[in-house]
Design a protein that fits this description.
The complex is a heterodimer of chains A (116) and B (362). Helix content of chain A is 68%, strand content 0%. Chain A is mainly α. Chain A folds into two domains: 1-29; 56-116. In chain A, helix 2 (57-85) runs antiparallel to helix 3. Chain A starts with a helix and ends in a 6-residue tail after the last helix. Chain B has one domain (91-357). The model of chain B has no long low-confidence stretch (mean pLDDT 83). Chain B is 69% helix and 0% strand. In chain B, helix 7 packs parallel to helix 15 and helix 10 (212-229) runs antiparallel to helix 15 (330-357). Chain B is globular. Classes of the chains: A mainly alpha (116), B mainly alpha (362). Chains A and B meet through helix 1, helix 2 and helix 3 of A and helix 2, helix 4, helix 7, helix 12 and helix 15 of B.
């Protein structure tokens, strides 16, 4: 039952985009001009490659994100039962969280959180 | 107490009646189409209301009048007129862009926001997707949006869009951690991931009052991180107009651009809606202990009005933040998350766990 509605919602999202695009395609004007295909760059022709290299710093933050995101995923089932399981669950998760906080502290100390 | 406003028996009655007069698959099909049309209409209406509200609130903060020509003195028809205008604009495909990814990006962005939108608890029994892992599903679905943004920036084959997309990606994934952990804090308090049960847990007091200081801290962290998730100032450096023209959607035109705009405003509403669900009691009315008459009057107001009212209050808070603070730089944004919000939210998580285990919450 819920699975059906999940499919309905996904189809709705697709239908919304397709319907709006169809209406726009039907009523919007169309004209051809080679200049329109150029990427925007302050009104002058593009210089060099558009897919440029970017800072490695973004990549570093993405790796740190992976570590903590997976931690959050692991903690969700624990969060539901922690009240019933009591101090034992608290100790287990404290160990897990401790390692991760040490990891964050290590990254901080190593200067991975600085923007260089 | 709220049974008068429970939508579930009504919906089940409609379903049973329909199954009585036609085969079950036909009933499901008709219901699915009805739900789909309902979502689309709600989506469009809410976007129009939010854009109008944003323009009026922004004007008020800047001592201007805002839209006041189209549709009377209030400018009520300005946004519908803009919608029609955006539909009549030409859709341009760039010469060297990656056409498939370029066309795919709006689908992903809209998909993420509609999936999260349909999880909002409008009323008792009045949510479209009801799952026992509701809030976890919301987190999972909302992270599809960042894929759409990255694809949009990458496939456009322009320097501005690429820089905008990478900035936006780094920022959104960073702030997702704080959102995840403050949601986790509330899951610990409520002991369930089901959105309706989270709301039901707040029947005798909203979470922000029940959870003492950790809940208030988690609420503030959620608001800051939610503002960043919705790509709004002071975290709007993905589309910093002065540096990057429009960020990751610079090369999108007409309705193609409209999807990103639509999703941005709906994400604002969804962020506020989840904040209301987790911290401010969802569709539960405001009760003050000891004032029986006041509580009885509050109970007469339907849940959906409470939910929408509270959500628009939080939306107003977010707009207030947007038009008050100046934009941050990318290094300041990332440092704010990793050196301040992240350790703080971990601390709040630990305090909340200890309080819950030793029974120190209401």
């Amino acid at each position: 039952m819920y699975f059906i509605f999940l499919i309905v919602v996904i189809l709705t999202a697709i239908a919304l985009v397709v319907a709006a695009m169809t209406i726009a395609m039907l009523i919007a004007p169309r004209s051809y001009n080679p200049q329109k295909g150029e990427p925007y760059e302050c009104g002058i022709p593009t210089r060099g490659e558009s897919w440029v290299k970017f800072k490695a710093g973004y990549y570093l933050f993405a790796i740190l994100f992976l570590m903590f995101d997976i931690e959050t995923v692991f903690l969700f089932p624990w969060a539901v039962v922690v009240a019933q399981t009591g101090v034992y669950a608290l100790a287990g998760a404290a160990f897990f969280l401790g390692i991760l906080i040490l990891g964050l502290a290590y990254a901080w100390r190593k200067g991975a959180l600085e923007w260089k | 107490m709220f049974d008068y406003y429970n939508l579930e028996p009504l919906l089940m009655w409609i379903h049973r009646t329909m199954c009585g007069i036609m085969p079950e698959w036909l009933a499901f099909t008709i219901e699915g189409i009805a739900v789909g049309i309902f979502i689309m209409v709600m989506y469009a209406v809410l976007a129009i209301i939010l854009i109008y509200m944003e323009r009026k609130v922004c004007a008020a903060f800047q001592c201007r009048i805002g839209p006041d020509r189209v549709g009377g003195r209030g400018g009520l028809l300005q946004v519908p007129a803009d919608v029609i205008k955006i539909l009549t604009k030409e859709i341009i495909f760039l010469k060297n862009s990656d056409k498939f990814l370029y066309a795919l990006a709006p689908f992903l962005v809209i998909m993420a926001s509609i999936l999260t939108f349909s999880c909002l608890p409008w009323n008792k029994g009045g949510e479209i997707l009801h799952m026992n892992i509701g809030i976890f599903f919301v987190l999972a679905a909302s992270s599809i949006g960042v894929l759409g943004i990255l694809l949009a920036g990458w496939s456009s084959n322009s320097k501005y869009t690429l820089i905008g997309a990478v900035r936006s990606g780094a920022m959104i994934i960073s702030y997702e951690l704080s959102i995840g952990i403050s949601v986790l804090t509330m899951v610990i308090l409520c002991g369930t991931m089901d959105i309706q049960e989270i709301v039901a847990y707040q029947e005798n007091g909203w979470n922000i009052f029940k959870g003492h200081l950790p809940a208030v801290m988690a609420f503030i962290i959620y608001l800051i991180a939610g503002n960043a998730e919705a790509n709004r100032a002071p975290f709007d450096l993905a589309e910093a107009e002065q540096e990057l023209t429009a960020g990751y959607h610079t090369e999108y035109s007409g309705m193609h651009f409209g999807f990103f705009y639509l999703a941005e405003y709906l994400n604002l509403f969804i962020t506020a809606g989840i904040a209301v669900t987790l911290f401010l009691g969802g569709w539960m009315p405001l009760h003050i202990a000891g004032l029986e008459g006041f509580n009885a009057v509050m109970d007469y107001i339907p849940g959906v009005i409470w939910f929408v009212g509270k959500t628009f209050f939080v939306v107003f808070l977010l707009m207030w933040i947007r038009w008050t603070f100046p934009r941050l730089r990318i290094d300041q944004v990332l440092i704010l998350e990793w050196k301040y919000l992240m350790p703080l939210s971990l601390l709040v998580l630990i305090i909340m766990t200890v309080m819950k285990v030793f029974g120190l919450v209401f």
